[in-house]
Structure formats: structure tokens, C-alpha cells
Amino acid sequence: MVSRRQLLVGGLLVGAGGLLGTGTAWADGGPPIVDCAGWGARPNSAVVPIWNQRPVKILVHHMASANQADVSRAAAYAVARSVQNFHMDVRGWLDSGQHFSISRGGILMEGRHRSLEVLRIGKRQVEGAHCTGQNIVAIGIENEGTYSTVDPPAALWNTLRATCAYVCRQYGINPTEIYGHRDFKNTACPGDHLYGMLPRLRTEVGGLMGRRVDRVVARKASWPLLREGDHGPEVTAAQYLLRDAGVTTAAPDGDFDAATDAAVRRFQVMTGAEDVNGLLGGESWPRLARTVRRGQGGDGEEAVRALAALRGTEAVPDVVRAPDWQRLLGTGGTPIPPSSDPTGPPR
User: How confident is the model over 284-306, as pLDDT tens digits?
Assistant: First the structure.
């Protein structure tokens, strides 16, 4: 029997018209959001699953598309249609994978059908397809463009802030619970620049909500993204951990070369990673960085020593677990106190 906190199917195939009409603007202070009908979406190919629970986080993505100069409404709608076509025709999904999309001109659009309706109610979660393992607990927001070497334009950034603040308010999500796609997968998404702006985003979203989010607290614990061409002790530690896991093709020399790329790919195959791409990120690090105890020897302890040389031996506990690895790797962030108040009472 399906429990109340498990899947609750919406029961209707919502087509291009949605339930809220075209070009909806909220009457309760939220940002204007163009619904699926407004940008000319295709009907979803199957019933959109809705879960009887609230999401607990937001995931920020970039589309890895061109940083086009055309910021018109017509261009925004064309991009939304292109994304939906790719997700349905190439990925084989029932609809767009993300819940919402933002154009480079700052136009906010519903991505997956029913996301707008359910957000307005603020009690349930439309199942997305934007990040495996997060699709029933996180709202996915796609941002048009590629932000690996440049910042997003101001219009997009301002809409992203307003959207995150509204989503957090509707669902009672703490603004510190805003993440990047790479925090959970082996991907460069949402780009180095946009990912680096997430602490600022958390702080500014808190400000829009009337909450103070300290810039230090806004640094969330994560895993580094390592890829071919990277150098340093973090790479050395990863190479030792790959050897510790039985992948012996990469010498622990601190250079993420072709052999290390091949070793990461082999490890991804061994562990059933969704994408075998040689990027060492948020999906593979938790599987690679096993618990290591002082004095046990072997490549696991060598990996710890490589980072201790960088951080100082006093920073190394007797038992190194995931949070310790993150701190030694330089991505430990600052823990959020358990007593932190939610953004609003459950409804």
C-alpha cells in the first residue's frame, strides 16, 4: 500500500494549457512566471507524478547553451521549447526535466507541467528529472547560458534571486539549502562562475526574505570538482584513493592527466555512475573517500597525508570521515547549527 508520504499521482494529463492560464503573475508577491502554455510547450507524454511532501532544497543548473545576445521574450520561449524537445525526444523523458527556467533576459518560465500550480499551493512536489537522486526532494532551476568562465547577466541573476526566495518562502526551505548540480553529480554544471556565486545567492535570497544569512554560514560543505588539467594535493589525494579502490592506472603525482581521467572513468563504471565522463564530482567523491583510520597504512592513509601536508597535520583527526575529507579538500564549508530556524512554519 502506498503511504501518504509516498507517490500521489496527479490523475490528469495536463496538456499545453496547464491549469493556471497563460503568463501567470502571482497575486501573493511572487515573481511573474510564464506557464507552459505561455511559451508554447508540448503536452507532457505521461501523467506528471506529484509527491505528497515538500521539497527541502533548490538545485541551480545552467543549460550549457550559447550565451546569446538576444534577450527577447521570443528568444526565451524558443530556448524553453528547445530544452523540452531535447529532454523528451533525446532523453526520453515525459516532459522538461527542470521545474523552472530563466532566460538570459530574466524571463522566468515554468519548465515541467504542473510545477507552477504545485508551487503556488506549497505543500507537494512535482517529480522532476533534473538530477538523479534529487528529483523528489529538490526544485530544479535551469538558467540559460554557460557560466564556466563568465558570470550570468544581471537580469538573469535578479530573477534567480527572486525565484529562489519565492520557492523558499512557499515551501519553508532555508535559503542555505540552495545547491549546484555538481554537489550531487559528476558535472561541471552550473559552471565554475555561477557555482562560485552560490554563497552570495544564499545570502541575497535570505535578504529578500528578511533573514540574515551570514556569508560564512552561506558556504556549504561540498566536494571539489576535479578534471583533466588540474594539479595539486587534491589531485594527489584522489589518485591515492583511486588506487585504494583498486584502480591502479594513475600515478599519485598530483597531475590530473589522461591516465587519471581513464582511472576516474573506470571507477565510475565500477560504481555505477550515471555519467562516465572523467569528472570527479559530487556523485563519485562520497564513494571514493572512504573512512580512513590513523595507523592503518595503505593508499587511504597516503591520501590523508597528501592533504595534511597542505592543511597541517593538526587538522587531521584519528578517523577521517566524509566531513573531514571535505574540510581537508578545502570544501568543508561551515556547518549550519541544528537550531537554525526554518523560513516559515509548515502548512
Answer: 999 999 999 999 999 999 999 99
Question: Are the C-beta atoms of residues 96 and 59 closer than 8 Å to each other?
Answer: no
C-alpha to C-alpha distances, 214 to 1, 60, 207, 208, 331, nearest whole angstrom: 44, 20, 10, 14, 17
Distance spanning both ends of the chain, measured CA to CA? 25
User: Grid coordinates representing 7?
Assistant: 507517490
Alpha-carbon separation of residue 306 from 4, 254, 296, 299, 328 (angstroms): 49, 9, 15, 10, 10
Cell of 192: 565554475
Inter-axis angle of helices 198-208 and 154-171, nearest 10: 60
Domain range list for the chain: 7-208, 233-328
Residue 10 has pLDDT above 80, yes or no: no
Give the Å distances, CA to CA, from 195 to 148, 205, 266, 297.
9, 15, 27, 36
**Residues 226, 230, 236, CA angle at the centre, nearest 5°?**
80
Quickly state the pLDDT bin for 64 (edges 50, 70, 90): very high
**Options 3.30.365.10, 3.40.47.10, 3.40.80.10, 3.40.50.720; CATH of 7-208:** 3.40.80.10
- C-beta of residue 206 within 8 angstroms of C-beta of residue 213: yes
Arithmetic mean of pLDDT, 258-275: 97
138 — phi, psi (to 5°)?
-135, 145
- Rounded distance between C-alpha atoms, residue 212 and residue 184, angstroms: 26
For 171-213, the pLDDT digits (tens) are 999 999 999 999 999 999 999 999 999 999 999 999 999 887 7
Say how far apart CA 133 and CA 148 lie, in whole Å: 24
Sheet containing 108-110: give its strands across: 108-110, 100-102, 138-143, 57-62, 178-180
Q: What is the pLDDT of residue 29?
A: 65
